[in-house]
Design a protein that fits this description.
- The chain is an alpha/beta fold.
- It has twelve helices and ten strands.
- The protein has two domains: 10-98 and 208-258, Periplasmic binding protein-like II (D-Maltodextrin-Binding Protein, domain 2); 99-205, D-Maltodextrin-Binding Protein, domain 2 (3-Layer(aba) Sandwich).
- The protein is 39% helix and 23% strand.
- The strands form two sheets. Strands 1, 2, 3, 4, 7, 8, 9 and 10 form an eight-stranded mixed β-sheet that branches. It has a two-stranded parallel ribbon with strand order 5-6.
- Helix 6 (117-127) crosses helix 7 (139-151).
- Residues 19-236 form the PBP domain.
């Protein structure tokens, strides 16, 4: 587990006391490199060091339920809303968005290039073309399941395979096997593995991230002060600027769009 050490933060935390928080977040924030950009800046600004645990959004939310994390950064809106409604979470704040994209081999045997998301899923199933799923209860996996449902398709063997792994690993498997997969754009841009971008821009592919504070109602080990510090910082001007600029130099476009303070497109 990566622990990012404080940079000049001893005066804020005291000479012999380490203030350390646990952040449960998604593999997309780690695989894209965003955590490497944000967490050292957060430590320098606040004195809190961060122990990030990168798992699927479903697993991150379960960590929150059990009081095993102080704060969450996730992208599975329906699961988030259910979790907040249970009463053990604090604030849930909009942070940023990007989008999901459907990827596959450049020769596109199922003919999905330029189709709508639902039509693309139907074509993959009809062709029996290999689809590689994360299968890990992540936000990406949840969105994939909803796309199959909207397409009226129940995916299954032999053409449907689950990796049970994060986005970067799943991209590698899909590329090795010349299969289709669903990815967040940030991880695709940073770890494409040679897959072609075939479907994008569908409204159903919007990918929204929220920060959620865990409270001591979930467990006595939770640090509400740490949760509030992270939530305030990541929705503040410094972090939002960093998010908006991340990826431009390397990819010619931002990997995420900062959204703090804007209307929440997932609000129900």
């Amino acid at each position: 587990m990566l622990v990012l050490a404080a940079c000049g933060s001893s005066s804020a935390a005291g000479p012999s006391v380490e203030r350390s928080l646990i952040l449960a977040t998604t593999t997309s924030t780690q695989d894209s490199g965003l955590l490497d950009e944000l967490l050292p800046a957060f430590t320098e600004a606040t004195g809190w060091t961060v122990k990030p645990v990168a798992v699927g959004s479903g697993q991150a939310i379960e960590m929150g339920r059990r009081g095993e994390a102080d704060v969450l950064l996730v992208h599975s809106p329906a699961a988030e809303e259910e979790y907040v409604a249970e009463g053990t979470a604090g604030r849930r704040l909009l942070v940023m968005h990007n989008d999901f994209v459907l990827l596959g081999p450049a020769d596109d045997p199922a003919g999905i290039r330029g189709a709508s998301a639902a039509d693309a899923m139907q074509r993959i199933a009809a062709a029996g073309a290999l689809f590689v799923s994360r299968g890990d209860d992540s936000g990406t996996h949840a969105r994939e399941r909803s796309l199959w449902e909207k397409a009226g398709v129940a995916p299954g063997a032999p053409w449907y395979q689950e990796t049970g792994q994060g986005m970067g690993a799943t991209l590698r498997v899909a590329a090795e096997k010349a299969g289709y997969t669903l990815s967040d754009r940030a991880t695709y841009l940073s770890q494409s593995g040679g897959l072609a971008l075939l479907v994008e821009g569908d409204p159903g592919l919007l990918n929204v991230y929220h920060v959620i504070e865990v409270t001591q109602r979930a467990g006595e080990r939770v640090q509400p002060e740490a949760a509030a510090a992270f939530a305030d910082w990541i929705t503040g001007p410094d972090a939002q600027q960093r998010i908006g600029e991340f990826g431009i130099a390397e990819y010619g476009q931002p990997l995420f769009v900062p959204d703090a303070g804007k209307p929440d497109p997932t609000a129900t």
